[in-house]
Amino acid sequence: MIVEEIFYGVKCNRCLEIHDDGEHSYWSDKSGAMENAMNSDWIEVKNKDYCPNCYFLNEETDENEIKEPFGEHVLALKRFIKTSLLAHLNIYENDVEDVFVFTFKRFKESTLKDYEERFIVELTKGKLISFTSLPDKYGTKEYKIELKK
Ligand SMILES: [Zn+2]
User: Fold this and answer.
1) For the residues 87-115, what does the mean pLDDT come to?
2) Ligand 1 center to residue 18 CA distance, Å?
């Protein structure tokens, strides 16, 4: 017998990441999903949810402030890496220098083709600071892309 079950997760309205407590991303009820996100320092502001990377405490007003929305070039690159390259992506946001650092790995058989590298350069035109790759001893390559915000 097939049964259908609905699960709930909490997605950040800014970076579009889904809350993950290390074991689960989805819960069988909305309040469980919210409670777990809140326990990981997620916040809700005006019916929108934000992960800890997407807000900061303004020490003058003592209130949480949401960071500027992601630029289209940041979202486009993120989509390309996650959905076309299917790579596990880490994004580090440097608020002091207004820079995003993307890192991801590819295995030996699937290192980026020239056209994929050119596509990334085209996608981030005008915002690209650096695009480097480092091979390691296991044959994987780690790519690092720095972007202006
Ligand atoms: Zn976020």
Assistant:
1) 91
2) 8
